[in-house]
Fold L-iditol 2-dehydrogenase.
Amino acid sequence: MKAALKTEEGTFEIKEVDRVKIPSDDWVLARVWVSGICGTDLRHWKKHEPHLTCKIMGHELGGEVVEVGAAVSSVKPGDRVVIETLLGEGTCDWCRVQQYNLCPDLYKVRMETVSRAFAEYITGPATKFHLLPENVSYEEATLLDTFAVCLHAQHRSGLQINDTVVVIGAGPIGIGQLQLAKCSGANVIVVDVVDSSLQIANELGADAVINSEKEDSLARIMELTQHKGADITFECVGGEHMQQTLDLATKTTRIGGKVVIVGGFENGNVALQLDWQRLQMGEIQLVFSASYAFHGIYPEMKTCLDLLSKGKINARKMITHRFPLAKINEAFETAQAKAETGALFVALEH
């Protein structure tokens, strides 16, 4: 099969590799039709990471079932599916209670199985394959991983109807966070530095948008919240910008409110300067959110699929660019240069 392998320089090279095979009778093989590029992917772009060299990456995809193991009855060849790319080792305390997003071996297992979207074929347990309704396209399916991350963060936040929410970052996660908060009856303010992303936020229901490079975002948020601050702030940027964005998030959150950290940290110890006294005296909670799994008896990705199929969230409007898999490096360049290209979510057609 064809696959995009990560090079030593952190770009990609299209090569022929051995086609993956079903390892057990409860697994499924699928043909990938569309995959996507998200912020996590971009954090690895053009970075020398020896442990990822020659590896297949990607974790957002829609595809078609090609083959199923003898014990599989939930899907069959020809079915259109979205593939959930979170897979733990299955026997740890967290996996046993469907909190597999917390499995200590999560990344080790998923990177060798379901989290290999930049290829022609993928295999995984049947439980990770969700049937797509006729009104949900493969392209739209690629954003379900993003929405599931956002839904998990919202569940962690305890968001209630009529809450005032600030979303810092208008990338795919931030726009997904906006849409789910609006679905739940919240008032949402979105902060970013890219006008094209803020325009999409506007079109998808933001009550206010703020370009923090053009105005004092903290002063504007205080004005919009009667000088109380937000009930909940979602930090959706992460990475190298975490010092600035998390500092802003803590300052825009009201006394007794919550800051939900959705954006990813860099590896290792990260030193952050925050107004810790205000956080303590104001009992402002810092809530960490990691990927997604189940909420009660429901897989969070399946819940997002239901919302998408009912028209309650909009994935199509978030897809701004499309490239064939053969042009994956050009696609990554476009996604990286979002201020110039207007990119939000870039889809790869296989």
DSSP finds 13 helices and 17 strands in the chain.
